[in-house]
Amino acid sequence: MKILCIGEALIDMICTDKGKSLAAGNHFLKKPGGAPTNVAAAIAALGGDVELAAKVGNDPFGKQLINVMENFGVDTKAMLIDPDHFTTFAFVSLMENGERDFVFNRGADGLLTKEEVDAIDLSKVHIIHFGSATAFLPGPLQEAYLHLLNKALDQKIYISFDPNYRHLLFPNNTQSFIDQSWHFLQHCNYFKLSDEEAMLITQTNSLENAADILLKKTKAVFTITLGKDGTLIGMNNEYHIVDSIPINAIDTTGAGDAFVGAILYQLSHRSKVQMSELNLGDWRRFVANANKAGARTCEYMGAMEAFAHLNNQIFN
Q1: 293 contacts 261 by C-beta, under 8 angstroms
Q2: pLDDT per residue over 215-274, tens digit each?
Q3: Is residue 17 one of the residues assigned to a domain?
Q4: pTM of this structure
Q5: How many helices and strands (H and E) does the chain possess?
Q6: For residue 131, what are the domain limits?
Q7: For the domain that residue 228 is a member of, what is the CATH number?
Q8: How many C-alpha atoms does 103 have within 13 Å on its Cβ side?
């Protein structure tokens, strides 16, 4: 079954001068990125049928993003080139005090429109994944994102959601992020949160309280990733923990996206009826396999480099 991911495709510019601000740094590593872009690449690497809806600029960076996705086997028909805007960039540096120096140069990614979403053929799409960190920012993408959610609900397409909270994108408007997240949480079939996101969205200070609120206020199956402490599964008014995979991590970039990609890849092999009938044992197996995908990703430097080492042979 086909999966559609929607959201940002961008270039991460990572300062490699340890401890320096962006102004003081001189060396940067250019990496293709964007959470839904990473998820699409992970699904394709595992052997899944996936399409990415995103907008890039008419520049070498936009063309690189499309080429990278095509090399993974992602369907790029809905990766559109905006002739008048540049590809979005995220510049980041980890400074000596542990704070991140961050500049977000938003370009084409925020300009995907609902009319362009309407042009996507959904007749063969069985899962739509909403996993964009930037789609809750004001602009055409925000409107297109919500429009596609409504189309998915009307057509009874399975809906997956990962809010991908980035404090640096919402420094003064966290409540807007929380409110928009709740709308998706209450309309999706599956969602994934980190433990920090779960407590932020539920406005609690403990994982247990957050899980209890999510069980009461949503109908979806959900997972909360806990790093080395495993992954929490919430379903049928209960939650359970699946152990993590012990590793010596080199780089955790993209591990959460690999996890989501692995969940969606496994779901895509079930019919709509079968997806609705999945039991705890099925979900424990899905999550154990997704933990393997996340762990494999941590063994390599950079998300896209790591995804090249993913394949479905790591699954049980």
Answers
A1: yes
A2: 999 999 999 999 889 999 999 999 999 998 888 878 787 889 999 999 999 999 998 889
A3: no
A4: 0.95
A5: 11, 13
A6: 2-10+33-86+105-314
A7: 3.40.1190.20
A8: 8
